[in-house]
Amino acid sequence: MKRTYEFKTKSARIEAEYSATLQDEIAYADGYNINIGKEVVKIENYVLYVDGKFVDCGMGYSVWEAKDIYRISKGKHNYKAVRIGNRYVSTEVEEIIQFLQELKKDGTAQEVIDFNNKKAADKLAKEIAENEEIVRKAECQDKIPTDSEYRAWARTYNNVVNGGGYGYVPEKITREQYEEAKKFLKERR
User: Fold this and answer.
1) Which of 38, 56, 111, 144 is most buried as measured by Cβ atoms within 10 A of its Cβ?
2) CA geometry: angle at 109 spanning 122 and 102, to 5°?
3) 25 contact partners, CB below 8 Å, separation of at least 6
C-alpha cells in the first residue's frame, strides 16, 4: 500500500509504502528446503521531499515508528517531533502519526492479523498454564517460604548434601512467586 502525505504548512511530502503479508518460512539445510511454519514479512519504505528536493529515504524493518513522539528542547522552546528514519519532523506531528497508523492498518493483510491474534492467544494460554503450575506446586508444599528464606534453606541444603559444591538443590516455589502467579491468574480469568 503506497500513500503520500502532503504537509499543509511547508512544501514537503512523505511518500510511504507499507505491507505485511504471511509467507512460508523456509529453512535451507544441505540442499533441502524445509517449510518450518509461517512468518510475517513486512515491507516498509519512505522517501522524504522538501521543496521538491530529495532529503531522506529508508527501507526495511522499522524505518518509522509512529508511536515515537519526542519532546525536544531548543533553548526556551519545547516541541514535539516524530521520528521518520533518521529525521525528526516537528510540524503536523499528530497528522503524520495518524497517516502512518492508517497506512500500517490498511497495508496489513487479514491473514496477518489472524496469525498475530492466534500467536498472542497461544502465548497467553502458555503463560496461564505456567502460572497454574506454579500455584499447584506451591499448594503441594508443606510451607511456602519467602524468597530470602528459600535462598538460606538452599544454601544450607547445598552445603550439607553437596558439600558446598555443585549439585542438585530442590526447587521450591516462594511466596512472592505464588502471590504473583495468583495475581496474574486473577487478572487474566
Assistant:
1) 144
2) 105
3) 35, 36, 37, 38, 39
Strand partners, 111: none
Q: Render 92-130 in DSSP notation, one character per residue.
A: SHHHHHHHHHHHHHHHB-HHHHHHHHHHHHHHHHHHHHH
What is the rounded distance in angstroms from the CA atom of residue 57 to the CA atom of residue 80?
21
Q: What angle do CA 78, 99, 101 make, to 5 degrees?
A: 95
How far from the centroid of its chain's Cα atoms is residue 101's Cα? 17
Most confident of 17-21, 82-86, 145-149: 145-149
How do the domains of the chain map onto residue ranges? 2-108, 133-188
Q: How far apart are the C-alpha atoms of 134 and 172, rounded to whole Å?
A: 10
pTM of the model: 0.69
pLDDT at 31 over 80: yes
- What's the mean pLDDT in 23-43? 91
The per-residue DSSP string of 22-41 comes to: EEEEEEEETTEEEEEEEEEE
